[in-house]
C-alpha cells in the first residue's frame, strides 16, 4: 500500500490536475478558450444534471435545442474557429453526455457541413440558416439494413429520374438503418444508387414527404438518448432541386465521412476524459478499510493508465487537427486515429467501471452510462476492424478488406 501525504478531501478534487495533463487546450486562441469555457458552463447547467434521466428513459430533450443553438457553435470551422477547437467541442460535449454530442455531430458535422460543401447556392439560401440555428434538424441516411461497412458497393436504395410536364423529379425506393436523429428530423440527406448509371446520388429529403416511414430502433444499450431510426422509402418523389448537385459518386462523400470519423475519434477522447473524471472522484471519496481508495497502489496504477490513454489519444487528435488545418489529413491517418483512440477508450472505460465496483453497473454513478456508450463509439463511423484494415492497406499496399 502507498504511504505519505493523505488523500485530498473530496472538495479539493477540482484543484487537482485535469485529464488534459499535457495542457493541449493551451494551443487554442484566447477567444477559443473563452468559448470552450462558455460551452462548459452550458453543459454543467443544462445537460449534466439531466443526462442520466434522459438516457434511462430513452428520451431526446428537444427543449434544449434553442439554448444549444444560442452558443453559435454550428460547424465551428465554417465560423472561423480552428479544427482543434471544433474537435474539443465534441470532446467536451461527450465528456458530459455522449448522446448530446452524437446529436450535435450528426446534425452539424454531417447535415450542415454537407450543405456547406455540396449544396447549391439555392439550397444553401433555402436551408442553411435554419439548420445552423437548429430551427430545423437534419439526419444523414447512408447505412442500410444489410449494408454497413460495404455500403459503398452494396447500396440497395435506388433513385429513378422521371421527366414530367411539371419538371424533373426522382423516385426513391429502399431502406436505411441506424439513422441518428431519424425519428424527429425535418430533413435527411439520403444516399441512393441511380438506376440509370449506377452512380451514387445525394438527395435532401423532406421527412414529411408521402412514402417516408420512420420507426425508432428500440432496446439499445448505448446512446439511448439518441433517436436512431429505421427508415423506409416507398415511391418517394423528390424534386430535382433537392438533389445534391455536388455529389456525383460515392467518392464525393469521403470528405464528409473523413470529417465525421475525426469527430467520433474526438468522442473517444471525451469518453476517456469522462471516465477519468468519475473514477478519480470516486477514488478520492470512497472509503474502504478505513482509507480512501486513492491510497491503494493498484487504484493509482489504474488511474494513471486511464490518464495515459486519454493523453495519448488527445495528443494524436491534436495532430490530426493540425493536419486538417493544413488540408492534408488523409483517410488512412484518420482511420488510425479512430481505431487507436477507440481501442484506448474501451480499455479506459473498462478500468473505470471496474474501479467503481458494484456502483459501476448502475447509471446513478455515471460510469455505467459511460461504459455502455463507449460500445457505440467503438463501432460507428467505421468499426475498429475496418479502420484497422484501411491503415493496413495504406502501409502494405495490399487490401485485406475484400
Characterize the structure shown.
The protein has helices spanning 30-47, 51-57, 65-70, 83-96, 98-118, 121-132, 151-154, 254-285, 297-326, 331-355, 367-379, 384-396, and strands spanning 138-141, 158-164, 167-179, 187-194, 200-206, 212-216, 229-239, 287-288, 291-292. With 402 residues, it is α+β, with helices and mostly antiparallel strands. Strands 1, 2, 3, 4, 5, 6 and 7 form a 7-stranded mixed beta sheet that branches. Strands 8-9 form a two-stranded antiparallel sheet. Strand 4 (187-194) and strand 5 (200-206) form a beta hairpin. Helix 5 runs antiparallel to helix 8 (254-285), helix 8 packs antiparallel against helix 9 and helix 8 packs parallel to helix 10 (331-355).
Write the topology of this structure.
Layout: H1 30-47, H2 51-57, H3 65-70, H4 83-96, H5 98-118, H6 121-132, E1 138-141, H7 151-154, E2 158-164, E3 167-179, E4 187-194, E5 200-206, E6 212-216, E7 229-239, H8 254-285, E8 287-288, E9 291-292, H9 297-326, H10 331-355, H11 367-379, H12 384-396
Parallel strand pairs: 1-4, 2-4
Antiparallel strand pairs: 2-3, 3-7, 4-5, 6-7, 8-9
Helix pairs in contact: 1-4, 4-5, 4-8, 5-6, 5-8, 8-9, 8-10, 8-11, 9-10, 10-11, 10-12
Amino acid at each position: 500500500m502507498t504511504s505519505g501525504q493523505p488523500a485530498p478531501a473530496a472538495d479539493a478534487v477540482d484543484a487537482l490536475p485535469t485529464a488534459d495533463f499535457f495542457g493541449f487546450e493551451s494551443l487554442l486562441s484566447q477567444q477559443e478558450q473563452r468559448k470552450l469555457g462558455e460551452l462548459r458552463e452550458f453543459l454543467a447547467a443544462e445537460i449534466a444534471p439531466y443526462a442520466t434521466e434522459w438516457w434511462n428513459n430513452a428520451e431526446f430533450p428537444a427543449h434544449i435545442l434553442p439554448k444549444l443553438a444560442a452558443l453559435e457553435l454550428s460547424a465551428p470551422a465554417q465560423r472561423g474557429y480552428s479544427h482543434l477547437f471544433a474537435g474539443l467541442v465534441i470532446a467536451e460535449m461527450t465528456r458530459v453526455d455522449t448522446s448530446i454530442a452524437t446529436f450535435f455531430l450528426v446534425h452539424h458535422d454531417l447535415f450542415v457541413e454537407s450543405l456547406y460543401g455540396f449544396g447549391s447556392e439555392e439550397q444553401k439560401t433555402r436551408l442553411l440558416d435554419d439548420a445552423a440555428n437548429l430551427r430545423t434538424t437534419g439526419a444523414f441516411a447512408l447505412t442500410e439494413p444489410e449494408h454497413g461497412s460495404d455500403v459503398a458497393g452494396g447500396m440497395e436504395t435506388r433513385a429513378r429520374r422521371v421527366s414530367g410536364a411539371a419538371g424533373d423529379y426522382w423516385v426513391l425506393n429502399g431502406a436505411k438503418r441506424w439513422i441518428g436523429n431519424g425519428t424527429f428530423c425535418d430533413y435527411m440527406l439520403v444516399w441512393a444508387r441511380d438506376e440509370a448509371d449506377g452512380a451514387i446520388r445525394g438527395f435532401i429529403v423532406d421527412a414529411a414527404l408521402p412514402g417516408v416511414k420512420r420507426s425508432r430502433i428500440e432496446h439499445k444499450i448505448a446512446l439511448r438518448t439518441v433517436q436512431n431510426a429505421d427508415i423506409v422509402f416507398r415511391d418517394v418523389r423528390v424534386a430535382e432541386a433537392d438533389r445534391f448537385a455536388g455529389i456525383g459518386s460515392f467518392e464525393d462523400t469521403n470528405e464528409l465521412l473523413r470529417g465525421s470519423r475525426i469527430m467520433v475519434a474526438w468522442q473517444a477522447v471525451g469518453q476517456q476524459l469522462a471516465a477519468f473524471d468519475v473514477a478519480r472522484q470516486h477514488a478520492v471519496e470512497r472509503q474502504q478499510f478505513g482509507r480512501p481508495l486513492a491510497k491503494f497502489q493498484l487504484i493509482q496504477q489504474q488511474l494513471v493508465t486511464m490518464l495515459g490513454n486519454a493523453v495519448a489519444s488527445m495528443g494524436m487528435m491534436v495532430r490530426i487537427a493540425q493536419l486538417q488545418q493544413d488540408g492534408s489529413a488523409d483517410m488512412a491517418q484518420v482511420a488510425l486515429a479512430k481505431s487507436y483512440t477507440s481501442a484506448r477508450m474501451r480499455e479506459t472505460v473498462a478500468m473505470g467501471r471496474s474501479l467503481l465496483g458494484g456502483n459501476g453497473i448502475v447509471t446513478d454513478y455515471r460510469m455505467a452510462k459511460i461504459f455502455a456508450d463507449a460500445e457505440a463509439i467503438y463501432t460507428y463511423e467505421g468499426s475498429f476492424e475496418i479502420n484497422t484494415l484501411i491503415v493496413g492497406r495504406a502501409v502494405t499496399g495490399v487490401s485485406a478488406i475484400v
